[in-house]
Amino acid sequence: MLVRSFVAPMFATNCWVIAAEKGSECIIVDPGMTDISAEIEMIVAEEGLKPVAALLTHGHLDHTFSVKPLADGYGIPAYIHPEDRRFIAEPAGIHGAQFAETLAGMDFAEPEKVELLKDGSILDLVGLSIKAIHAPGHTRGSLVFLINDDTLLSGDVLFAGSIGRTDLPTGSSSDMEKTLKNKILTLDDSIRVLPGHGGETTIKYERKTNPYLKELQ
Question: Helix (H, G, I), strand (E, B), or coil: what is residue 112?
Fold first, then answer.
């Protein structure tokens, strides 16, 4: 599997470009802010890829800011959980007061094509099996994506050594605890984890060292 990433300049969000191999179709995951479409297009061109979908782990702007120019530019759909869909075009409703100044005077809109995912949805894209897992806690509509049962795109649910914050609108510490217990700790140790921020890790390593997971076992 081909995995490329670009770290967006605001909030250091990982945008992942994933394909079965060089020269094949690909997905774009969590294109953040500011507009990083040119950088993602460069990665796509370097690897000879053809984007077929944009996947969003949740509705925060640092994961969705560049989805419209990329999705519309390539003529591809954006996939998101219905609980977070409206925040693509109305981001003020899911961000805390500290972000209000950043949003002032900015206009937002959905991509032309938006597809909704529920817990357990399977996407057979780019020669990979991609399972959407509803993982609320960071936001009500947070998703993680399990690819070929061996790689997890964990968004802002699980990081190396930490977890996503739960104090922003629609976040919930009790939901996060349930997600970690029932959706993360049940995964196989061998699974590679590609998070929304920071370096990659594995379920095994996080199970042994992540304090938030250790206290739930």
Answer: coil
Instruction: Read off the pTM.
Output: 0.96
The 78-80 sheet, strands edge to edge = 2-7, 14-19, 25-29, 50-55, 78-80, 114-116
Radius of gyration of the chain (CA): 16
Alpha helices in the chain (DSSP H): 37-46, 61-64, 67-74, 82-89, 100-103, 173-179, 203-209, 211-214
Beta-ladder partners of 133: 144
In 3D space, the residue among 61, 60, 6, 46 whose CA is nearest the CA of residue 28 turns out to be 6
In order of 53, 82, 114, 159, the CA distances from 192 in angstroms are: 22, 27, 28, 12
pLDDT tens sequence across 9-34: 999 999 999 999 999 999 999 999 99
Residues facing residue 197 across a β-bridge: 13
Note whether 87 and 93 are within 8 A (CB).
yes
Residue with tokens 């964990």: 154
Closest-CA residue to 171 (of 145, 136, 197)? 136
